[in-house]
Write a structure and sequence with these properties.
The protein has ten helices and four strands, in the order αααββααααββααα. The chain is α+β, with helices and mostly antiparallel strands. The protein has two domains: about 5-15 and about 25-65 and about 110-280 and about 315-440, Outer membrane efflux proteins (OEP) (Up-down Bundle); about 65-110 and about 280-315, Single Sheet (Outer membrane efflux proteins (OEP)). It is elongated, with a radius of gyration of 39 Å.
């Protein structure tokens, strides 16, 4: 292997691992644990789940008794101007009075309240599944951001290593051209490739900074030294082996699909609840009153206590078409929820199939690109020797450097694609969890 290839590989490795000498690398599990504590999305999902649980207690309140108290006081001024009745004395008199009441209302039959309880149970169950979906999305989101940061870091290392290799070739081309061994156009080609490599380094640095900011956004922690993937990455095909088995599992176990199924149930119960507006309600009502009047027309006060216990039946006859309109509205929303469920079924099938074949494809690409990198290294070695002996033009060496580093970049990305597609496949069948973060974390270099 020529000195150019060996030197470029050593420099690339140095660029990728330079920070390891000063601090322990932050691995995927570190970032995930920080994200569980600080990510606003997972925290918002947790509070939404807690808030939704209260809807069941609120629904039960429609079946439970209510107790209310009331108090009323009034002051009356009475003036008799003229009276032929000797019992009514002419003149002015002031007297006050109060009315204290206590009312107990116990629903006996309210079908809308019964449906509301059933609906709230579905809503609470759906909220729990939505929180599990948020947890799975956090796992995948952290993994994606982490691997994006690694990929951006790799790209920067490759760009710097390529630039160094082109710089070395440019210096050699200068010497060759000064001795008249190559035309000046070869020198210009080398200079142009070097300038383009410098521009790629700036772009790669910006991409790396943005990728690291993505990790900070989810973890509320600045990451400067993420641990890279080991060279010996275990590449295993999906188990079970057929895509049909994965699709079948996805249609049964996918959490987002289960959430939408419960949304359909909630919408169906809403139709029933709205239709209950046509039905009668029956309540047990008990009311106690204590009344004190300081005076009346006859000038005498009184103190009374009243207790009423009865059953109250209410039958809605006509409400301006409100109930009929609400039933229609709820029916349309139910049909929409069903169509959303149908769309999601198709989406889960497509995404599961895509993730499955993505894993298979990534395995093939990793193996092919690994061989390509090895072959391109040998090819560049031969072109470099040929350039020094005058058998190959400078452009062939420049093309060889370009092809080698592109292949190295594609090889690294194919490895990341294998990991991400494996995680997406598990998400589609509802099994993605923190255990998968731990498993991937074992593939990281210490």
């Amino acid at each position: 292997m020529s000195g150019l290839v060996r030197w470029s590989r050593s420099l690339m490795l140095l660029c990728l691992l330079l920070s390891c000498s000063s601090a322990r690398a932050e691995d995927l599990l570190d970032i995930y644990e920080l994200a569980r504590q600080h990510d606003p999305l997972i925290q918002a999902a947790q509070f939404a789940n807690l808030a939704t649980r209260e809807s069941l207690r609120q629904a039960y309140s429609g079946l439970l008794p209510t107790l209310s108290a009331g108090a009323e006081y009034d002051l009356t001024r009475q003036e008799i101007l003229d009276s032929d009745n000797p019992l009514f004395q002419e003149g002015t008199s002031d007297f006050g009075g109060y009315d204290l009441s206590l009312t107990l209302n116990q629903p006996l039959f309210r079908y809308a309240a019964i449906v509301s309880v059933r609906q709230a149970k579905d809503v609470v169950a759906r909220s729990g599944l939505e929180y599990f979906v948020a947890e799975q999305e956090l796992v995948l989101r952290v993994a994606e951001l982490y691997l994006q940061a690694l990929s951006a870091q790799d790209d920067l290392g490759f760009a710097r290593a390529e630039q160094a290799a082109l710089q070395l070739h440019y210096e050699r081309a200068q010497g060759q051209q000064a001795r008249g061994l190559i035309p000046v156009t070869d020198l210009y080609d080398a200079q142009a490739r070097l300038a383009a490599a410098q521009e790629r380094e700036f772009s790669a640095k910006d991409a790396q900074d943005d990728a690291f900011e993505g990790l900070r956004e989810v973890s509320d922690n600045r990451v400067a030294n993420p641990a890279g993937i080991k060279e010996e990455l275990p590449l295993g095909p999906p188990d079970p082996a057929t895509v049909e088995q994965w699709i079948e599992a996805g249609l049964k176990q996918n959490l987002a699909l289960q959430v939408q199924a419960l949304t359909v149930d909630v919408a169906s119960r809403e139709v029933d609840r709205r239709q209950a507006g046509h039905l009668p309600t029956l309540d047990l009502v008990a009311r106690g009153n204590r009344q004190r009047t300081g005076g009346d027309l006859f000038g005498k006060g009184r103190d009374t206590e009243i207790l009423n216990v009865g059953v109250e039946l209410r039958l809605p006859l006509y409400q301006g078409g409100l109930v009929n309109s609400q039933v229609k509205e709820a029916t349309y929303l139910y049909q929409r929820a069903r169509k959303e469920h149908e769309r999601l079924v198709r989406s889960v099938e497509r995404t599961t199939r895509s993730a499955y074949w993505g894993v298979i494809s990534a395995i093939g690409r990793v193996e092919a690109l690994q061989q390509s990198v090895a072959a391109l290294e040998l090819a560049l070695d031969g072109r470099q020797k040929g350039f020094r002996s005058g058998l190959f033009p400078s452009l062939d060496v420049l093309d060889g450097v370009r092809d080698l580093f592109r292949s190295r970049r594609d090889y690294a990305r194919a490895r990341y694609d294998y990991i991400l597609n494996s995680l997406r496949l598990k998400q589609m069948v509802g099994t993605l969890s923190e255990k998968d973060i731990v498993a991937v974390n074992q593939w990281l270099a210490e």
